[in-house]
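The instructor's notes for this session suggest beginning with a concrete chain rather than abstract definitions. Hand out the sequence below and ask the class to guess, before any prediction is shown, which regions might be ordered.
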Amino acid sequence: MYFLIHNGTLIDGNGGEPVENAAVLIKDRTILDIGQKDSVKVPDGEIKRLDAQGGFILPGFIDCHVHMMFNGFRFENPLYTPLSLYFYEAVRNLEKTLETGVTTARDAGMADYGVKMAVEEGLIIGPRLQISVMPLSITGGHFDLQLKSGKTVKTSYPGLPESVCDGPEEVRKRVREVLRAGAEVVKVMVTGGVISANDSPEHPQFTREELRIIVEEASYRNLPVMAHAHGSSGVKNALNAGIKSIEHGTYLDEECIQLLLENDAWLVATQLAHWSNLELLEDGELPDFSQEDARKVAMNSHKSMKKAYQAGVKIVMGTDSGIAPHGQNLRELGYLCDIGMTPMEAIQAGTKNAAELVGMDKKIGTLEKGKLADVIISQNDPIKDIKSLGSHENIVLVMKEGKVFKDLR
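After discussion, reveal the predicted structure:
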């Protein structure tokens, strides 16, 4: 089946001027031709025409930090929630994410290989997934879910390896277990976090030796490592160990920024989660031990992202959805513009540049001949109003690999 998307303005993700009266010719899963309508050669035979109705044709977006198995985080949830309910909720979360215009997502913990398979086999609807399975944590660290009472509130089942590991040998073994479980990127908690009973965002976790072992083990399979990192000491430890993806980056000092630049590393901003936590705080829905951390993280994150952007650090879109609400992913683009990005730069942070970070830039991230047909249509001009992309009704068409999953035209 051929598809011809026409009568729209093309923003292809490469950063050039938008192309008016554009067309995208698609066969099966792939873009065959693209450009101004008159330059696109339409074949004879059966073809389905998708009228953009004057809208704006963009690549599907890539969210570099989500949690499809989370719906907020409360420590008591595992005590009362049947295991199967998490998976049914994930079905809804995945569908919401795709409908918002995100066609690829990097899951930063708790989605196992079966969730990825279910999407790939068409059993459930969602973006393509790159999974980390289980974040790694030290004892007493950000993903050690044993509380001071001695009670454990973790979710466990055969598809999830243990999270906690200490010392070189145990860390090496745990990485291997996560990779055995299907991880395509290794997630490690190098600092504490906001919603945590055991630590604070500034606290560094894991030694540099332990972090180098994590990077080494992942490298044997040519796989990357992503680091949950708020405090500056943890950020430096991660970067000095060779980790290339820093998630959150709340308390960046000048040395952190210099290391990000020297190591050609990436910063995943997750502004949406920070502002969402403030909204929860106002509604009285954050636990007492997290309230002050939530305030500090939101304020400092904005300052750090602004400094990093001005210094030329590579920043990409990540929302921490699951901590933030699912289905609001593209609100992150407005927050990226708040730190200084132009609308076109923000779009690239969620398309071309994000595709490079997740190692899929040969297949997705821009609308070009030979790439997968991940295409969305926005009613409003995102260059004039970037925040309009955060509106569910504004995204009127979502196509992933040549298949239409949402059509409100």
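Then share the key points. The chain has twelve helices and 16 strands. Residues 288-311 form the longest helix (24 residues).
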